[in-house]
WIPI1 protein (Balaeniceps rex), 410 residues
Amino acid sequence: CSSLAIGTTTGYRLFSLSSVEQLDQVHESNEIPDVYIVERLFSSSLVVVVSHAKPQQMNVYHFKKGTEICNYSYSSNILSIRLNRQRLVVCLEESIYIHNIKDMKLLKTILDTPPNTTGLCALSINHANSYLAYPGSATSGEIALYDGNTLKTACTIPAHDGPLAALAFNSTGSKLASASEKGTVIRVFSIPGGQKLYEFRRGMKRYVNISSLVFSMDSQFLCASSNTETVHIFKLEHLTDSRPEEPPTWSGYMGKMFQAATNYLPAQVSGMMNQDRAFATVRLHISGQRNICALSTIQKLPRLLVTTSDGHLYIYNLDPQDGGECVLIKKHSLLGSGKMEENKENDLRSPLPQSYAATVARQSTVPSTSTMPGYSEDGGALRGEVIPEHEFATGPVCLDDENEFPPVSI
């Protein structure tokens, strides 16, 4: 959640999300038009691009060098691509291809997957737990969990009654969130066991299309956005452990009786009763547009970032203690000249202590030959930990030739 990649009719653009006030464009390419998939390997120079001109071809580039690393063609249109430091996953409508990212060799082809018209799949960013999740059924909400390291099926999770609409791993690959096409209930499961840990109700009045589902890096929050104007943020905690003792009122006694009664009800019914409301919400100014959200820490403060298909980035403040309505603090234009559009509450320029997240775009010293600053799988994006050189083995994919971790600025 420190970088934003967008595909446009003329090519693609990469942005660094290291500050609230300034949006830094890291790279722009107009070589391939009508880009509908652009995936960047964390903050490295490796990007994977798919264009409407050749929807069956995946192009892998080293954008700082301006060179193509390789390209692969497939039997049908590419619907989505996911990658971490170990694996690159290409999802077609009825098959999935798993490549070794170090040399781009094809390791596994999962054929005859249930029809997956949207290319729904999720890959853990933690390469030590390279779990892959995708729909196990076209008619029910079954999740197929696959181990991308051992190249074996891990388990199947009966997550929802209806077909799946969204899947997301947390940063360590130990939790998986899911939503169905109804969009009313969001569930979180443990990985690789598949036990249900949390269940959140987004709403009961109307069905919605969940367009984005994402954890915060510390796995304390889960954000869900849809085609409506409301974004919901849930807090992953067991409220019964942290709630203060209720006052001896009629409602308090009824609440305890209600809670006790759930122990004697069938699991399906009691689960419905134990769902929690959203911890925080955002009211977008637009509705009906596709959007993607991220929960990030910028300048030491938790922020919610919302990117909409009309080419805008909205940054909100999130109160991690009390939640409630998130406050819009900045609006950026992604398709214009790069100038920022400000709202009334844009004066957040008080001299906050600079955090790692606020300074990652600065030029730093050249890394040693043995290690290079970068992202580790347990929150290193915020701590600036090091990645061993052996993770980037010599071969077609060579990313350790320049100072590009943390994110570079140009």
